[in-house]
Recover the amino acids of this structure.
């Protein structure tokens, strides 16, 4: 099973959460960033609709797949102030 890690980090004079190389918006406090990361992580585990998706990979190739809305990753919020 895929594990998606949400990490709380200092960012742009405040705090944000980071997933891979992507950063969230900046929050004024560590607690606000932690609360937002926890909520986002919880939403990501919810089942959705099965639907077709189209995406481009890092080599510029396009792919079409059927994404199973029940196949959700596990999530983890890492808090290291």
């Amino acid at each position: 099973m895929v594990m998606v890690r949400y990490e709380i980090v200092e960012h742009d004079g405040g705090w944000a959460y980071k997933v891979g190389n992507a950063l969230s918006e900046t929050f004024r406090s560590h607690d606000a960033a932690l609360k937002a990361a926890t909520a986002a992580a919880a939403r990501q585990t919810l089942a959705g609709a099965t639907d077709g998706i189209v995406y481009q990979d890092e080599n510029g190739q396009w792919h079409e797949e059927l994404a199973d809305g029940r196949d959700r990753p596990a999530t983890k919020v890492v808090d290291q102030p």
